[in-house]
Amino acid sequence: MTISPHKSRHHGFTLLELVMAILLMTILVGMIFKTSSSALALGNTIVKTQNEEMLHQAFLELLSRRFSSLPGNTRFELKSSDGGQQYLSDITLQKVPQSFNWDGGARIAKAVQISTVRRRSGFLDIVLRYYENEILEGSEANTGESRTVGEEKPFAEIVLLTDVAYFEWKVLDGRSMEWLYDWDQQSRLPLQLELTMKIGKEGEEIRQIFWIPAKVNPEQIVSQQGQATDPPPPPPPPLN
């Protein structure tokens, strides 16, 4: 019996098989790229959200420290106005001197203002303004002359928040226990401040309460100390 020798045969890829392999590889690469892009976009969104939350928290902590450390003789004023779609407001703090470096030189701000500024986009910017002189009505300038409201211009402005949908203040009167949207009591401070705001169109509403601790006016302390050091009145003359 004759056994025929085994003949090896080498098979090659046809053109159709190559095209199908390339097409399959292209689909797989596209799916991998799309998944990676989605994961990267999700990661960027998470990081951006965390950064925004940290910024908002830092802003609220800044306000909390500011209001909790006000001297007893601070002059506090809140003015609110209906701007149509949003309420616009200005909180002015006077007799809270702050010294810092600005534009290469040392400056002292005798008045600080937290203002809402409407932009063309319809959103609000929250701006911190520093004034060299006192700006509230009836304040005395360095020259001793009474100043007109709106006459003084800030020497520095810092944008604290942008893209704010609404930003509304109200204050609690410690005597009447009523919530007010304006405050101009020169002799005393409100008991609490409530801030309601929303960042962007899709942001959640944020509501925060700030306490203003009751403090004795240092001017009253000095006055009382001066009265205590005055010599007592002379005794009445003896009766004959």
What does this structure look like?
This protein is of the alpha+beta class and 240 residues long. It has a domain of 163 residues. 28% of the residues lie in helices and 33% in strands. Strands 1, 2, 3, 4, 5, 6, 7 and 8 form an 8-stranded antiparallel sheet that branches. Strand 7 and strand 8 form a beta hairpin. The longest helix is centred in the N-terminal third of the chain and has 54 residues. It is elongated. The model has no long low-confidence stretch (mean pLDDT 79).
Task: Write the element-wise H/E pattern from the N-terminal end onward.
Answer: HEEEEEEEEH
Q: If you average the pLDDT, what whole number results?
A: 79
For the largest beta-sheet, the strand count, sense and barrel status come to:
8 strands, antiparallel
State the helicity in percent bands. 25-40%
N→C terminal distance = 170 Å
Radius of gyration: 34 Å
Low-confidence stretches: none
Class from helix and strand fractions: alpha+beta
Number of strands: 8
Based on Cα principal axes, name the global outline: elongated
Work out the helix count.
2
What is the strand content? Answer: 25-35%
Features:
240 residues, 8-stranded antiparallel beta sheet, elongated, alpha+beta, 2 helices
